[in-house]
Design brief:
- Keywords: Acyltransferase, Cell shape, Cell wall biogenesis/degradation, Lipoprotein, Peptidoglycan synthesis, Transferase.
- Pathway: Cell wall biogenesis; peptidoglycan biosynthesis.
- Pfam families: Big_10 (PF17964), YkuD (PF03734).
- The protein is mainly β.
- The protein has three domains: 8-132, Immunoglobulin-like (Sandwich); 137-236, Immunoglobulin-like (Sandwich), CATH 2.60.40.3710; 240-400, L,D-transpeptidase catalytic domain-like.
- Helix content is 3%, strand content 41%.
- It has helices at residues 168-173, 361-368; strands at residues 8-10, 21-25, 31-35, 47-51, 56-59, 66-70, 73-81, 89-91, 97-100, 109-117, 123-132, 137-138, 142-143, 150-151, 157-160, 175-179, 185-189, 194-199, 208-214, 219-221, 224-225, 229-236, 240-245, 250-255, 258-266, 280-283, 286-294, 307-315, 322-326, 344-347, 374-378.
- The strands form seven sheets. Strands 26-31-23-24-25-30-29-28-27 form a nine-stranded mixed beta sheet.
- A hairpin with a 5-residue loop joins strand 2 (21-25) and strand 3 (31-35).
- The longest helix is centred in the last third of the chain and has 8 residues, at 361-368.
- The chain starts with 7 loop residues before the first strand and ends in a 23-residue tail after the last strand.
Length: 401
């Protein structure tokens, strides 16, 4: 990387001495001549300095760009990229300096033109060009939304990075949410590689949302940049909020704030403890259809081992809590007993062990649900779900978010 230390210094240097002589002769033999006056162009007392130096490469996008003057005041500063797009900036009140209002873009060549005037109005000019660095490393951010998709009112945007983030404030500044109803969205960090975003309360049905990522030129850790500039729009669909009561073995479903249906369920058994269902508010984070469930992937799970496909499966937590079809328990269990390994089971058909029946309770609920729908479990003997387990951030108060 080329050293970026010297600035460009320029004053208006000018001046040329002009001398003219004329001769003539007359009949009397006499001679005569005149000498022209010398003239010198004025030199400005203003000296303009541009940093980084002309021709510099590997320049960081934040910090190095400065324009200053001694012996005068700046009158004009213009910084443009190779496409002619101007970089916003402002001259200080005393006229002694100029700085950009924000960061520059990585991997971009810039041209700087500046003018200043001394107290006699004599102008000095300076020009420079430099190129910002091209990052060797980026944090490889990935979120959980897709362009133009429709999500439920509990949807939380979760952004994960491959590398630890040191400048979390810079990341948050580089992510903005545009909402059609003016909803304010805030971020909450779970460790150094994950930040989740949500409004104070559930989204309003029909809200249009666009996430603006401007992280490509943001240094998120020493030598590591954000890696992405993009806009991702999505829409909030109808409201569906389901409440599972583990004590009554029923799930009450609300649509757009009104009672919609009640479905008999069987949730996590009270014994052994590893079968307990979580209490708290969770969000459908994926619809997985017939999901392969393997007891060996759940640490500490007691009881007989199992590994089989489960129909109409919708994931609620990263640790393995689902709302799913149950096509192995007897009809009498639903609405009466909790026999699952911590999930919420809805009756499904035994006719097709792998896929269940789309006309069963489980099949109809699966078809009616979308990612982002809310499922709350109450009156379970289990623990409270952790806010970072899946999209369970609604269990944090807004003050703690």
């Amino acid at each position: 990387m080329k050293s970026v230390r010297r600035g460009v210094v320029a004053g208006l240097l000018g001046g040329a001495l002009a001398l003219s002589t004329a001769c003539s002769s007359g009949g009397g033999g006499g001679t005569g001549g005149t000498t022209g006056a010398a003239s010198k162009a004025a030199v400005s007392a203003a000296v303009v300095t541009i940093e980084p130096a002309n021709g510099a490469t590997g320049v960081k996008p934040v910090g190095p760009l400065k324009v200053s003057v001694t012996g005068g005041k700046l009158t004009t500063v213009k910084v443009t990229d190779k496409d002619g797009k101007e970089v916003p900036g402002a001259i200080t009140a005393d006229g002694a300096g100029w700085a950009p209002k924000g960061g520059l873009s990585v991997g971009t060549q810039y041209k700087v033109s500046a003018e200043a005037a001394d107290d006699k109005g004599v102008v000095a000019k300076a020009e420079s060009s430099f190129t910002t660095l091209t990052p060797d490393k980026d944090a490889n951010p990935r979120d959980n939304i897709s362009d133009g998709q429709t999500y439920g009112v509990g949807m939380i945007v979760s952004l994960r990075f491959d590398r630890a983030i040191k400048d979390k404030a810079a990341v948050e500044k580089g992510i903005t949410f545009e909402t059609s109803d003016g909803s304010v969205v805030k971020g909450h960090w779970f460790g150094s590689q994950r930040v989740d975003f949500r409004p104070e309360k559930y989204w309003t049905a029909g809200t249009k949302v666009t996430v603006h990522y401007r992280l490509k030129s943001v240094e998120v850790a020493p030598g590591v940049y954000g890696g992405v500039d993009s806009d991702e729009p999505f829409v909030i669909g109808r409201s569906q909020v389901s409440t599972v009561d583990a004590s009554t073995h029923q799930m009450a479903v609300e649509r757009d704030g009104k009672p919609y249906q009640t479905i008999p369920i069987s949730t996590g058994a009270s014994e052994p403890k590893s079968w307990n269902a979580y209490n708290g508010t969770m969000v459908i984070e994926a619809k997985e259809g017939s999901a392969l469930m393997d007891s060996s992937t759940v640490p500490g799970l007691e009881g007989s081992a199992y590994k089989h496909k489960v129909p109409h499966s919708m994931r609620l937590t990263d640790s393995g809590t689902y709302v799913h079809g149950n096509n192995w328990s007897d009809h009498s269990e639903f609405g009466h007993n909790n026999v699952s390994h911590g999930c919420v089971g809805l009756e499904d058909s035994k006719a097709d062990p792998d896929n269940g029946d789309d006309n069963s309770s489980a099949g109809k609920f699966y078809a009616a649900s979308i990612v982002g729908d809310v499922v709350t479990i109450k009156n379970s003997v289990g623990e409270q779900v952790s806010p970072d387990n899946g999209l369970s951030g609604w269990n944090l108060s807004w003050n703690n978010w």
